[in-house]
UniProtKB/TrEMBL annotation:
It holds the Pfam family CBP_BcsQ. It comes from Paraburkholderia sejongensis. Signal peptide: none annotated. This is Cellulose synthase operon protein YhjQ. It comes from the Bacteria. The gene is yhjQ.
Length: 273
């Protein structure tokens, strides 16, 4: 099992949209996928097709040590297992953050309870970095996708936080979302970002802006089903293919290793042991 965190240093970059889309696209490629909403905005469930915002989830487990973190688990139409953050008041949100600060292994311990096959994947949607939720997710992640639109505020905050992000997760990739190449400003910002990142972090993963993306969400459908030949659908499929290949390569590397670990537990319906 691999954990992939979606993080960003600005709000509204597309973390939740991409987490949901990639969860569904990887599930459709035959992978067992668990999606965790680790953001008090609690919106991932809506993206995954759950009608009402779920009231209980990870937050209630953070607030009450007697509640299992996976007590509220959902499965969407594509078979993605999903645990919401849950609804929290401002005061409760502060308590959740305090517990996460006091217990830096909280999310890691939770993920260790998952009984996914070795080719399974956990996708972690996160609150905007810096936050306790993003820190936890980066700490646990085998790969972090740092989502940014090619816009000045998002890219300036990303460059300012880059060293901290790299220190938190060694395997970081930048995903440029809402790309509109006809805009001169975006081209300039991308050039600035590319120079700041250097050769170590190529801007290879890109998802174009498509005004139909929020419209598909509003209809409760997927852009890649509504308009499979659109540029953004092509980009999302390409990103899912890239992740699928990365997951496969991680598996091969593990099998090729001279000291292989013990056999994994058999597949189970319940994500928790
Ligand atoms: N590639 C895209 N093209 C057009 N709109 C997008 C794209 N990606 C995300 N959006 C829209 O941007 C808004 C913010 O996305 P969201 O995933 O909620 O961001 P975050 O989780 O980072 O706060 C949503 O309305 C979403 O539909
Ligand atoms: Mg979000």
């Amino acid at each position: 099992m691999k954990a992939i965190a979606l993080v960003s240093t600005a709000g509204g970059t597309g973390r939740t949209t991409l987490t949901a889309a990639l969860a569904v696209l990887l599930a459709r490629r035959g992978r067992q996928v668990v999606a965790l909403d680790f953001d008090p905005q609690n919106l991932l469930g809506a993206q995954l097709g759950i009608d009402a915002l779920p009231t209980t989830g990870l937050a209630q487990a953070l607030l009450d040590a007697g509640t299992a973190w996976h007590a509220s688990t959902w499965r969407n139409a594509d078979g993605v297992l999903f645990v919401p953050y849950g609804q929290v008041s401002v005061a409760d949100s502060t308590h959740c953050d305090a517990r996460l600060a006091a217990e830096p292994r909280w999310l890691g311990d939770a993920l260790a309870e998952l009984d996914l096959p070795e080719d399974g994947v956990v996708l972690l949607d996160t609150a905007r970095y810096p936050s306790q939720q993003a820190e936890h997710a980066l700490r646990c992640a085998d790969l972090a996708l740092c989502v940014t639109p090619p816009e000045p505020v998002a890219c300036t905050t990303l460059v300012a936080r880059l060293a901290a992000l790299r220190a938190a997760c060694a395997n970081l990739r930048i995903v440029v979302n809402r790309l509109h190449p006809a805009r001169d400003m975006q081209r300039d910002v991308l050039a600035m970002l590319g120079a700041a990142l250097g050769d170590g972090l190529p801007l290879a993963q890109r998802v174009h802006l498509d005004v139909a993306m929020p419209e598909s969400f509003a209809r409760g459908t997927w852009l890649f089903d509504d308009a499979p030949h659109s540029q953004a659908s092509h980009d999302l499929q390409g990103l899912a293919n890239w992740l699928d290949a990365w997951l496969e390569a991680s598996l091969d590397a593990r099998h090729d290793a001279p000291l292989a670990g013990p056999a994994m537990a058999p597949r189970r319906e319940d994500p928790s042991s």
